[in-house]
Write a structure and sequence with these properties.
This protein is 66% helix and 0% strand. With 116 residues, it is mainly alpha-helical.
């Protein structure tokens, strides 16, 4: 889910900021969104199989360092998406100011957020 959230942020950046981007890269979305977590899980399983899951739950155990294989990518995705949100918001505000200089920036940002 977090990998798809990252892909959605990248797509939004390319769609809003880089308006004329190469649409041929869209086919990479599925392999990246499914392949990246697969690699992380495979490395985690390879390093220490016992840390990945338990008899009662299918989850990363918290006793050792394997939980960082989940937390680090999630934190990175959240930070990247916040940066993308700030960049896209500034582009939307600048675009709205060019069209209507009398309109407040907050109103433009609110309208763009509701549309997104």
């Amino acid at each position: 889910t977090f990998a798809w959230m990252l892909i959605e942020g990248i797509h939004l950046y390319l769609f809003i900021v880089k308006v004329f981007y190469n649409t041929k890269i869209v086919w990479l979305y599925c392999p990246l969104a499914w392949g990246t977590p697969l690699v992380v899980v495979a490395i985690t399983l390879g390093v220490d199989f016992c840390d990945y899951g338990s008899l009662n739950y299918c989850w990363i155990t918290t006793g050792r360092g394997a939980n960082w294989a989940f937390h680090v990518p999630v934190i990175a995705v959240i930070i990247i998406n916040i940066v993308v949100l700030v960049i896209v918001s500034t582009v939307v505000i600048k675009s709205a100011k060019r069209k209507d200089p009398d309109r407040c920036a907050f109103c433009s940002l609110l309208q763009a957020s509701l549309i997104l």
